[in-house]
Amino acid sequence: MPQIVREADVIVVGAGLSGLQAAVSVHSAGLSCLVLEARDRVGGKTWSVDFGGGVTDLGAAWINSTNQSKMYALAKRFELELMVQNTQGDIVYSDLDGSVHRFGYGGIPDSGVRFG
Asked: Cβ(70)–Cβ(76) under 8 Å?
């Protein structure tokens, strides 16, 4: 049964990456903290699911040590499993009408829209 907390120095709303970092910072400062999350999981926009033997990221695609150095350091600190981002092959996406498209990694999908 979950622990019922009736009082805390700080309440953090949301258990996404920012909320979890806020909770770590509050705890490190010696204060009590309660994290409230509407979903049945942590991670916010960072969420990976297994679709028939293949893992798909829903939300944030990746973190790295260059552009997201604080999040990367936090993941390493908590010994989270990290995977190398695939940068080879094709990207596949499903459009709003259900059609499936593919294009090479690093490219831009041809949407038929022309600018300029």
From this structure: no
pLDDT tens-place string over residues 18-60: 898 899 999 999 999 999 999 888 887 777 777 777 777 676 6
Question: Hey, what are 44's tokens?
Answer: 């916010």
Residue 71 and residue 64: Cα distance in Å, rounded?
Answer: 8
- Beta strands, E only, 1-116: 10-13, 33-36, 46-51, 54-59, 90-94, 100-104
Retrieve residue 11's tokens: 């309440």
What are the residue boundaries of the structural domains of the chain, listed by start? 1-46, 62-107
Q: Is 47 within 8 Å of 59 (Cβ atoms)?
A: yes
pTM above 0.70, yes or no: no
